[in-house]
Amino acid sequence: MLRIHFTDADLARTRVAAGPDPLWEICTSLHRFQSRRGRWAYADWYRSARTRVHDARLTRTLGTVLLPLVPRAVYFPDFLTPPEGAHGLDAGLEAVLATPRRRVLDEVGLLARTSGAPAWAPRLAEPGLRKELVQAMRAYYETAVAPWSDHVQARVEAERTARARTVLGHGIEGLLQNLGPGVRWERPVLHTAYPRDRDLYLNGRGLLLIPSYFCWATPVTFGDTTLDPVLIYPLSHEPQRGALPQHLDHGAPLTTLLGRTRAGVLRAVASGATTGELARAIGVSASSASQHTTALRNTGLITSHRHGASVLHTLTPLGAALLRANTPVSN
User: Fold this and answer.
1) Secondary structure in 3-state letters for 58-115
2) I need a labelling partner for 146 at 20 to 30 A (CA). Which of 33, 54, 215, 301 fits?
3) pLDDT tens by residue, 289-331
4) Alpha-carbon distance 167 to 125, whole Å?
5) Which of 161, 174, 230, 160 shows the shortest CA–CA distance to 4?
6) Does domain 246-325 correspond to CATH entry 3.10.280.10?
7) Alpha-carbon separation of residue 219 from 7, 119, 192, 276, 314 (angstroms)
8) What is the pTM of this model?
9) Coil, strand or helix: which one is 213?
10) Helices (H), the chain
11) 198: region left, alpha or beta (phi > 0 left; psi from -120 to 50 alpha)
12) How many CA atoms lie within 13 Å of 35's alpha carbon, on the beta-carbon side?
């Protein structure tokens, strides 16, 4: 069990990350290769990633470099997920390269004591081997994670929309009360399942919540309590749908594909909307809006979740892709 202790200042400084963090997605996706738990939620990705890794001749790198360094265990080195990752893959990997030698040795030593580290791991303190590691991380990301980036981005955007509404209606404590089935808020402590028993005192630093597509079941945080606190938490998953139906071919205008009203509903859902808000936005009755959302949900273009007394509709990755494909690009 992980217990995160908040003060009033911490509640005021708690926020949700602006988007997916590529370094954390690298690490949590590596965990998906090491466990069958939740495999159903990642079935399409898992099959695709294995094939791509094989075709890119990265199987040996995956098995001898990345997986041993990022075990699905109580700890893996914090320097692999620097905060600069929030600014993109390049910034994150540059920060990995710039990690001080002493810190690399300390964290590799901790990995050896807790989960077991490969014999070559202490040499990561040397710039040459760390550069090879960064190249391996980049190759893995481009091969296994980047092809899924639209899907991940759409899911995280939908998550942020839902969380923003929770904060507006119920404050930060309302947000902390609804982070997932394995998380429990009992003021002033957030309790979550964790590989080992520990306490994290925020001491006024606040908490950055980072929704992760590839994180499954158990949230993750830094091992080093002196680092700016983060909590990587899993998105909820639904059974994956197949490819876009043929009658929703991207080549035709959205109104032709869906009809004018339903196309309007899809556009209005882009920023998240309740059934009542959709009805007002497109000028139809609530019952009519509900019928349109049901049709779009059955086609796999939107998803709907209970949000207090209302139902919040957001785009699925499929719906986001269709909308982007039918949005004119400005010159």
Assistant:
1) CHHHHHHHHHHHCCCCCCCCHHHCCHHHHHCHHHHHHHHHCCCHHHHHHHHHHHHHHC
2) 301
3) 899 999 998 888 888 877 667 788 888 877 877 877 776 544 4
4) 42
5) 230
6) no
7) 21, 28, 7, 34, 24
8) 0.78
9) coil
10) 8-12, 22-32, 43-55, 59-61, 67-69, 89-97, 101-114, 127-140, 149-176, 254-258, 260-269, 275-282, 286-298, 317-325
11) beta
12) 17
- Phi, psi (deg, nearest 5) at residue 302: -135, 165
By the 8 A CB rule, do 86 and 20 touch? no
Radius of gyration of the chain from its Cα atoms, rounded to whole angstroms: 21
- Over residues 109-131, the pLDDT tens digits come to 999 999 899 999 999 999 999 99
* 270 in Cβ contact with 287 (< 8 Å): no
The dihedrals phi and psi of 159, each to the nearest 5 degrees, come to: -65, -45
Structure tokens at 244: 């876009």
The pair of three-digit structure tokens given for residue 265, joined into one six-digit string: 């509903």
Token readout for 316 is 């699925």
Rounded Cα distance, 179 and 293, in Å: 25
Per-residue tokens: 90: 């390049």
Nearest-5° Cα angle at 131, 129 to 132: 65
> pLDDT tens digits, residue range 64-78?
999 999 999 889 999
Taking phi over 0 as left and psi of -120 to 50 as alpha, with beta for the rest, 326 belongs to alpha
Contact call for residues 213 and 27 (beta carbons, < 8 A)? no
For 42-54, b/e burial (b = at least 16 CB within 10 A) is beebbeebeebbe
pLDDT tens-digit profile of 140-166? 999 999 999 888 887 888 788 888 878
Distances (CA, A) of 244 to 146, 253, 316, 317: 19, 15, 12, 10
- Sheet of strand 302-307, all strands in order from the earlier edge strand to the far edge: 273-274, 310-315, 302-307
List pLDDT tens digits, range 46-67.
999 999 999 999 999 999 999 9
Taking the C-alpha atoms of residue 115 and residue 111, their distance in angstroms, rounded to an integer, is: 6
The full set of domain ranges for the chain reads 2-17+151-234, 22-148, 246-325
